[in-house]
Amino acid sequence: MKSRLYLPILAMFLIASGCTESGPPGEEPQGTQDSGPQALEPLSIFTTNYPLAYFAERIGGEQVEVSFPAPADVDPAYWAPEAEVIADYQQADLILLNGAGYEKWLERASLPASKLVDTSAAVASSYVPLDEGVVHTHGPAGEHSHKGWAFTTWLNPMMAIAQAQAIQEALSKVRPEAAADFRVAYEGLQADLLALDAQLRDVAADFGGRPILFSHPVYQYLDEHLGLNGESVHWEPGEMPTEKMWNELSTLLQSHPAEFMVWEGEPLEEVENRLAEMGLTSVIYDPCGNAPESGDFGSVMLQNHDNLKMAVDADSGDAN
Amino acid sequence: MKDTLYLAWRYLAHHRIKTAILVGSLTLITFLPVGLNVIVGQSARELTARAEATPLLIGAKGSPLELALNSLYFESDTPELTTYSEAVRIEESGLAKPIPLYVRFQSRESPIVGTTLEYFDFRGLEIASGRRMAVLGECVLGSRVAASMGVGPGDTVISSPESVFDLAGVYPLKMQVVGVLEPSYTADDGAIFVDLKTTWVIQGLVHGHQDMDAPEAAAGVLKREGDTITANASVVQYNEITPDNVDSFHFHGGMSGYPISAIIAVPHDQKSGTILMGRYEADDEVSQIVQPATVMNELLGTILTIREFVVAALLLVAIATLATAALVFLLSLRLRRREIDTMSKIGGSRLSIGTLLASEIVAVLVAGVLLAGLLTLLTVQFGEELIRALLLG
Amino acid sequence: MMEWIDYTFFLRPYAPTPLRLPMISISDLRFRYSQGGFALHVPQLEVESGERVAIIGPSGSGKTTLLNLVAGIRSPQSGRVITNQMDLSELADSSRRDFRIRNIGLVFQEFELLEYLNVLDNILLPYRINGSLELNKKVRQRAAELAEMMGIGDKVSRNVRRLSQGEKQRVAVCRALLAEPPLLLAVEPTGNLDPTNKDKVLDILVEYADSKGSTLVTVTHDHDLLSRFQRIIDFKQFYDLDPKPEAAPSKAP
User: Selecting from 3.40.50.1980, 3.30.565.10, 3.40.50.300, 3.40.50.970, what CATH number does the domain A199-319 have?
Assistant: First the structure.
């Protein structure tokens, strides 16, 4: 009886001692670890679009592991994660949301409220309302609206700064040990965005209040922030518009004599040519909702600025 | 001694029916007060433990007991409803973390608990298999529900209509089981957990339907005034949320006006809790804040008083039973008069004969007490199950 | 209170002595029940070792009482009863019981079997109700042999309620003989039996008494059986129909 009792105790002792001995040499057990932020596990950060992922990586640096699980070929604004992906989101330390109704799937998902960070909540008063959509009535709940807000907030560098700041604050709250590092990194990002903002303002100043066309209604924040005189149509970069759409464009140009049409991506060549015949120059301004094939958010935005500036400069050159 | 006990055993075995009745009644009369005490004690501990683990409850003004029973044990009727805005109000106060609860609907006999994922962390509920709910229409089952329904991840459960005549309101919703919880030996084992929003789907407040602008929905459109489309009842109401239709479920306006039954408020610290309680003291306040421990202690006070009466009654019964047993033994002695005489005449020692007669009584008493002890042990061991079956089931 | 009594002689296994001492020796015995009824006076009575004696007399004349006195179940108010060299009235109750269980085999008219025991357990009963007898293998073997001898060897595990009257009395006799007592006291042992069983049971008792040299004293009403006994004591002579607190000197036999 005694010996039978003794065996498991011995075994437990051996296992216990084995555990401490088999740990990596020189590494303290986790419980006693308190040697500064470098030693901590990176925070798991999930985002719902690429700009937020970029901001989080810039601010969090080594302290974060950022996941943005949308496939590369979709617009995250029209993407809804599958249940399994949402389960991954649930495991995150922080879930960064764009806000302004960007994550339409959010209201159908179960996510821990304490981990959700609506990065644009602080600037919600600057949301641009959508002037389309329907309101319908049925059942006891009465009238309800599907109208909402424009959501590509980050195209306004000042909104982007506000969102970056929200990320910095959220990270500092979860990991106060690294708050100083986050602050420094944030200030670097802020400086970049402010520089971009200054450049964009310069282009906008050159541009004056001349009418401009957007191929898709995603540029509301840019439009409003820079004081552009823009109107939107619903054209897809990779598609040939129907004749009806061409006719509508002609009608629109009569009241809104734009010289530039801003595209999310490269339009079809024949579309670009036909637009040129109508006196419209195509300019690419990538909203960068998903990760770019090359470069990053910063380089894409600079390229956008360059594209815009080149078009405006060329136009000014023509006029001269 | 051995020989005497052998004779006693033969005697008891021969009169086994009489012995069984005696042992049985002694067992019961010993066990009932002891077992009752154990069960009441355990259930009191269980009830109190859960109440004490729930710092504050907020709900619409009404019966605090109903609020506590509904929110802690998913028992009793649904209390007066409050709205989600109350949870927002607590969150915005910065004093406590709100965990909203909407305990109103059922699937068969099991309560459907609409809440947020924080509830699992708050109660320390671990997933035994599968995962937590991720999208609308998914549910996670308490261990007992899963066992009794015989379902697990991949199966479905259907919410029960509140009433057969409730035509406008609650449609049965087929919910996907995505996870089963580890047993916690609390009311959580008997609940079906869904996202708060899923309970609103069950209630018909959040619904999926065809796109009113789409041509195939034209038949369902009653009138169209500008942007407002009025739909008739032919618009398809889904009773199951699938990956294909999940995107059609939408909230009408913000969530703040949607109903919930209670909010568990977890104060960030003691001071915050006190401040939060103070905020609900105003006369025109439509909500109430209760400390479940206080409410449950009041209830338990009542239960304990009742228990004292029951135990007193049982003691009287015990005395009556013991008197009857004594009578039975006396009668048995009279019946054995001749046997005793014979043994005396043959030369049986007084000690042996006395032992033989006493061992009948002792054996019956010991057997009764032992059995009662065994029952008590079983009660201690399986009391949790028993309590849930009796009180919470 | 300590009693300085030498028990050893009756704890010794019984062995018939060549010197024939009286098994029962009664002198000037007086007994009456406290409730009254009758008074018993036996001036003198001796029964030799190995003797077979029948006691006859009218009902209620005290025959059974006499046997109870001889067995030490009752104690006389005065006079002496010496049973197997032992004055039982000088012994404490527990010693008398120990004496009885070793020295006296009792057979009753109503058999007095324990109905919750089977045949074997009934036979073994004396060894289970007095610590001075040790129930061992030898005893069990003897019990089995006795049962075999009595023709109930195939019924040892049967409950006694399922036996015939004759079989029951045979079980009772086995019980009385198991401790191999030097004195057998039987009260109407055949009173409830049919003629065949009567003879059978009496045969057994007589045969046993002869083979072991035991003394057999039987109270009986049955005059057909008297031929089996060496001596017949008519109890009328001891029966005092007019009992007085101080009984008159007995009449001559």
Answer: 3.40.50.1980
Closest residue in chain B to residue A85, using alpha carbons only: B134
Candidate from A109, A113, A143 with C-beta closest to B135: A109
| Binary contact (A134, B207; C-beta < 8 A) | no
Is B307 at the interface with chain A, CB within 8 A?
no
- For residue B160, being part of any structural domain is answered with yes
The model's pLDDT over A119-148, given as tens digits with 9 standing for 90+, comes to 999 988 888 888 654 444 444 444 444 468
Residue A301 vs residues A308, C151, C241: alpha-carbon distances, Å: 11, 120, 143
Closest by CA to A57, choosing from A222, A180, A221, A188, is A188
Cα–Cα distance, A55 to A43 (Å, whole number): 14
Rounded Cα gap, residues B260 and B243, in angstroms: 26
From the list A225, A315, A304, the residue with the least C-alpha distance to A262 is A304
**B-C Cβ pairs (cutoff 8 Å, strict):** 76
Of B118, B229, B252, the CB nearest to A113: B118
Chain B: closest CA distance from residue A5 (Å): 25
Q: What is the ipTM of this complex?
A: 0.83
Q: Distance from B20 to chain C by nearest Cα, in Å?
A: 16
**Strand partners for C217:** C53, C185
Closest CA to C217 of C244, C178, C185: C185
Question: Which 214-243 residues of chain A touch chain B by CB within 8 A?
Answer: none
Q: Do chains A and B touch (3 or more CB pairs under 8 A)?
A: yes
Pairwise CA distance, residues B311 & B306, whole Å: 9
Contact C94 B350 (CB under 8 A): yes
CA distance A88 to A111: 10
Q: What is the domain count for chain B?
A: 2
Distance in angstroms (rounded) separating the CA atoms of residues B115 and B99: 7
Under DSSP, is residue B175 helix (H, G, I), strand (E, B) or coil? Answer: strand
How far apart CA B70 and CA B51 sit, in angstroms, is 12
Question: What is the tens place of the pLDDT at every residue in C174-224?
Answer: 999 999 999 999 998 888 888 888 888 888 889 889 998 899 999 988 888
Q: Where are the domains of chain C?
A: 22-240
The mean pLDDT value for B167-192 works out to 84
B246 occurs within a structural domain:
no
- The model carries a pTM of 0.65
A113 Cβ under 8 Å from any chain B Cβ: yes
C residues 165-194 near B, CB within 8 Å? 175
In a domain, B80, yes or no: yes
B339 lies in some domain: yes
**First vs last C-alpha separation in chain B:** 51
Q: Residue A16's pLDDT band (boundaries 50, 70, 90)?
A: very low
Contact B135/A139, CB-based, under 8 Å?
no
CATH architecture of A40-125+146-192: 3-Layer(aba) Sandwich (3.40)
Nearest to A41 by CA among A51, A32, A33, A49: A33
Q: How confident is the model at residue C245 (pLDDT cuts 50, 70, 90)?
A: very low
Q: Which CATH architecture has domain C22-240?
A: 3-Layer(aba) Sandwich (3.40)
**Residue B253 confidence class, pLDDT cut points 50, 70, 90:** low
- Annotate A154-199 with DSSP letters as a single string: GGSHHHHHHHHHHHHHHHHHH-GGGHHHHHHHHHHHHHHHHHHHHH
Minimal Cα–Cα distance from B374 to chain C, Å? 30
Look up the domain containing B375 and give its range.
2-47+299-392
- Contact of chains C and B by CB distance (3 or more pairs under 8 angstroms): yes
Q: Are C104 and C177 in contact (CB under 8 A)?
A: no
Determine the distance in angstroms separating the CA of B334 from the nearest CA of chain C, rounded to an integer. Answer: 15
Say how many C-beta atoms besides its own lie within 10 A of residue A11's C-beta: 10
